Amino acid sequence: MAELNTDGGGGGKGGKVRSKKQNSKVDLTAMVDLAFLLITFFMLTTTLSKPQSMSLALPDKEDDKKKEKPIKVDENRTMTVLLGDNNKMVYYMGLLEKPIAGPKDISYGKEGIRQELIKRKKSVLEYSTALGKPKNGIIVIIKPSKKSNYRNLIDILDEMAIVGVETNAIVNDFSPEETKLLEGK
Predict the structure, then answer these.
(1) 159, 168, 105: which is closest to 138 by C-alpha?
(2) Residue (of 141, 140, 148) closest to 183 by Cα position
(3) What does pTM read for this prediction?
(4) Cβ neighbours around 123 below 10 Å, total
(5) Which of 42, 63, 84, 87 can pair with 182 through a Cys bridge, CB separation 3.0 to 4.6 Å?
(6) 12-25 as b/e, with b when 16 or more CB fall inside 10 Å?
(7) What's the number of CA atoms in the CB half-sphere (13 Å) around residue 124?
(8) Tell me, what's the pLDDT at 176?
(9) CA proximity to 142, closest of 81, 101, 75, 84
(10) In DSSP terms, which residues pair with 78 in a beta bridge?
(11) CA-based nearest residue to 85, from 146, 145, 148
(12) Cα–Cα–Cα angle for 43, 44, 45, nearest 5°?
């Protein structure tokens, strides 16, 4: 952009000649366009955070006619966790008729069930190596009652992932003794 000097003042002799200072203007339109193009490019090419989920193996939807024999599991490796209402959790190791440990009320978190899972997992590994068997880990059976909430089930599954329990099962059949145990009778 050119400016026209229309100064009517004397351009006479003897005066100092001053140079006219010009305004410097930078056109930023191209830079703003480039910035928006880069923002758009990076928004479209980046991957957004994906929701985290844990894998859960569900049984096949087959007819009940093909019932297989129940699988025998070593009760020395089995820990059963009962989930009740009001964040109540009871665990026992082995069979309820002759438990190895428990039944005992326990809390959620690192001072409660996590500590117990680590201790029991270690004892099961020591038991299997003492017998000369392959190093089989602990099996945790989770039994949520109808009164327990979904958050408690997720919390106990998170604890399984934190501790590294590889074999766990969610079962919903309660014996009358287990129901009495959860109700505190």
Answers:
(1) 168
(2) 148
(3) 0.62
(4) 16
(5) 84
(6) eeeeeeeeeeeeee
(7) 24
(8) 83
(9) 81
(10) 139
(11) 148
(12) 95
At CA 163, angle to CA 168 and CA 154, rounded to 5? 60
DSSP the chain: --------S---TTSPP-PPPPPP----HHHHHHHHHHHHHHHHHSPPPPPP-----------GGGPPPPPP--GGGEEEEEE-STT-EEEEEE-SSSEEEEEEEE-SSTTTHHHHHHHHHHHHHHHHHHTT------EEEEEE-TTS-HHHHHHHHHHHHHHT--EEEE-----HHHHHHHHT-
Q: Does 59 have pLDDT greater than 70?
A: no
Mean of pLDDT values over 100-115:
83
Residue with tokens 């203007």: 25
Any idea which residue has 């309820």 for tokens?
96
Three-state SS letters, 108-159: CCCCCHHHHHHHHHHHHHHHHHHCCCCCCCCEEEEEECCCCCHHHHHHHHHH
**Mean pLDDT confidence for 35-43:** 93
